[in-house]
């Protein structure tokens, strides 16, 4: 009874402080759960992983070791081929049905051209196909599409086979030695070897045999800056008050893309070298 009386007396004496505290708590609760409410209103009746206040599905990502594909695979097995989730603070559908994916990317590709802007992209990366929208996107896609015709892709197969043979040889060496190895790193090197051969014709690379090459280190670092950095910028910050506003500032955008600038400088050096060679010829 004394505790009740003391509490009542405290409220009477500090009613304004208690009122402000109650309003703040209600606002914090509303803001923390609004993402879940938006998700339920946008995609009612569709199952999906639990969304925690402020951090969304971050606990699931951490349990998956920060590997998004593992989280998607676990959710797919649990919720089916189409399920809802919050992606970078926005209600999203995850689709893993092959027929539906084909319709999205091929049959109705013109209906899915504008990707959501997760964060501000600084120049010159804002001119990429993943960032431009509307007519600019259609123009760039129209220019790029002929480079990926079935005829041209078939012409690339012999060059791809040469690089794949190198990977097969490495796997055979691993098998003979009996040592464990990380196949992902070898596949990354294979991908970059193929990319450099096609995108930068005349530039010979052999990242599979030289995994410590500075070029491959820069490229891989640009794609994966670090586990905790990814967690903060992609899952924590977008769910905080004014988080998306902070993400769209030039300072944060340039910090997030700092490794891409190094790759861009490398690309400029390659282009300059090719132009110099063509001029001398």
Automatic annotation (TrEMBL):
Transmembrane domains' residue ranges: 14-32
Keywords, sorted A to Z: Heme, Iron, Membrane, Metal-binding, Oxidoreductase, Transmembrane, Transmembrane helix
Mitochondrion recorded as keyword: no
Pfam families according to UniProt: p450
GO molecular function, one term: oxidoreductase activity, acting on paired donors, with incorporation or reduction of molecular oxygen
Keyword Transmembrane: yes
InterPro entries attached to this UniProt entry: Cyt_P450 (IPR001128), Cyt_P450_sf (IPR036396), Cytochrome_P450_3A (IPR050705)
PANTHER family for the chain: CYTOCHROME P450 FAMILY 3, FATTY-ACID PEROXYGENASE
Family: Belongs to the cytochrome P450 family.
Protein's name in the database: Cytochrome P450
Organism: Exaiptasia diaphana
């Amino acid at each position: 009874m004394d505790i009740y009386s003391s509490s009542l007396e405290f409220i009477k004496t500090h009613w304004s402080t208690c009122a402000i505290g109650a309003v703040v708590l209600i606002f914090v609760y509303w803001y923390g759960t609004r993402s879940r409410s938006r998700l339920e209103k946008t995609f009612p009746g569709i199952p999906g992983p639990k969304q925690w206040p402020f951090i969304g599905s971050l606990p699931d990502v951490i349990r998956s070791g920060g590997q998004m594909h593992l989280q998607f695979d676990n959710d797919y097995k649990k919720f089916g081929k189409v399920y809802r989730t919050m992606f970078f603070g926005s209600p999203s559908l995850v689709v893993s049905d092959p027929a539906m994916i084909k319709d999205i990317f091929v049959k109705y590709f013109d209906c899915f051209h504008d990707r959501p802007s997760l964060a501000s992209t600084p120049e010159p990366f804002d001119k990429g196909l993943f960032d431009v929208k509307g007519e600019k996107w259609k123009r760039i896609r129209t220019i790029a599409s002929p480079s990926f015709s079935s005829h041209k892709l078939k012409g690339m197969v012999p060059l791809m086979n040469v690089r794949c043979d190198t990977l097969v040889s490495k796997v055979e060496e691993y098998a003979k030695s009996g040592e464990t190895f990380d196949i992902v790193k070898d596949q990354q090197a294979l991908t970059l070897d193929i990319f450099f051969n096609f995108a930068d014709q005349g530039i010979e690379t052999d990242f599979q045999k030289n995994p410590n090459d500075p070029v491959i280190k820069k490229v891989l670092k640009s794609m994966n800056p670090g586990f905790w950095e990814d967690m903060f910028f992609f899952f924590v910050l977008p769910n905080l008050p004014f988080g998306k506003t902070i993400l769209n500032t030039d300072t944060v955008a340039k910090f997030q893309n700092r490794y891409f600038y190094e790759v861009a400088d490398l690309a400029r050096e390659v282009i300059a070298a090719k132009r110099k060679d063509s001029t001398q010829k």
